[in-house]
């Protein structure tokens, strides 16, 4: 499992990527800088990686990282979205699971649309 750092305006978050082809392709493209979008308790942004669906999930766990094939986007999930039913975490449409954020997710709630985000390989 490869480690990455997600740098935001509210702090840095360490995450681990799984061994999927999607995660490997994203890791190979790092570093990536983007502008955050938010959708409920999800942060997402387009990345320069184009991938097909790979074991897509309709519901994910807190801290999950996903790749959204429809938008070529990297997604960070930390709570319910507008599509959620109850307390579940439901993406707009299925995402490829690519990893998980380690540690406290609460500060992610302070990231705003338009904030800069950078993903890089952990040292």
Describe the protein.
- The chain is mainly β and 123 residues long.
- It has one helix and nine strands, in the order ββαβββββββ.
- The chain has a nine-stranded antiparallel beta sheet, covered by helices on one side.
Provide the succession of SSEs.
EEHEEEEEEE
Q: At the first level of CATH, what is the class?
A: Mainly Beta
CATH topology: Cyclophilin
Mean pLDDT: 97
| Helix/sheet category | mainly beta
Share in β-strands: 35-45%
Unreliable residue stretches:
none
Largest sheet: 9 strands, antiparallel
Query: Per the principal axes of the C-alpha atoms, what is the gross shape?
Result: globular
- Strands ordered across the widest β-sheet: 3-9-1-2-8-6-7-5-4
* Total of domains: 1
Helix content: under 10%
Distance between the termini: 14 Å
What value does the Rg take, in angstroms? 13 Å
Number of helices: 1
| CATH-derived architecture | Beta Barrel
Per DSSP E runs of 2 or more residues, the count of β-strands stands at 9
List keywords for this structure.
mainly beta, 1 helix, 123 residues, single chain
Helix and strand topology:
Elements (H helix, E strand, L loop, with lengths): L2 E6 L2 E7 L3 H9 L2 E4 L1 E2 L3 E5 L17 E5 L4 E5 L18 E6 L14 E6 L2
Antiparallel strand pairs: 1-2, 1-9, 2-8, 3-9, 4-5, 5-7, 6-7, 6-8
């Amino acid at each position: 499992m490869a480690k990455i750092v997600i740098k935001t305006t509210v702090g840095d978050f360490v995450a681990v990527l799984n061994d999927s082809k999607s995660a490997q392709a994203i890791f190979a493209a790092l570093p990536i800088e983007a502008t955050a979008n938010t959708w409920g308790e999800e942060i997402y942004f387009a990345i320069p990686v184009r991938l097909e669906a790979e074991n897509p999930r309709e519901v994910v766990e807190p801290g999950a990282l996903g790749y959204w094939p429809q938008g070529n986007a990297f997604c960070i999930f930390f709570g319910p979205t507008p599509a959620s039913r109850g307390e579940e975490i439901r993406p707009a449409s299925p995402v490829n699971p690519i990893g998980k954020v380690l540690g406290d997710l609460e500060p992610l709630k302070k990231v705003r649309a338009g904030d800069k985000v950078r993903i890089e390989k952990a040292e």
